[in-house]
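Folding Query — how this chain folds
Tokens — whole-number codes for backbone shape
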Amino acid sequence: MAFYELGRLLLRGRVTGPPTVRDRRQRLLALGVREIPVSSEIAMSAAQLSNLHLDPIDRIIVATALVEDAVLLTADGGILEWPDPLMRQDARR
């Protein structure tokens, strides 16, 4: 899901870096970023998140971080300001 979002941002020119999402993915994986498949537990958790905007992909990304007890790197202001104990890192810095 995160790579889908990244690909859309690259196409719209909202992020810079490697020209394709495939190139960006390879660089991120080389840095140790872990890919996590969407499980039924993640999907159910995404459906039950409260006080988070309704974008389904953002909800799946947030639920993945919560279920996996992982730190979410994001520049999304809504996710960064969401009042929940989600471990997150501001990617804008």
Remarks:
- Residues 38-93 form one domain.
- The two ends are 22 Å apart (CA to CA).
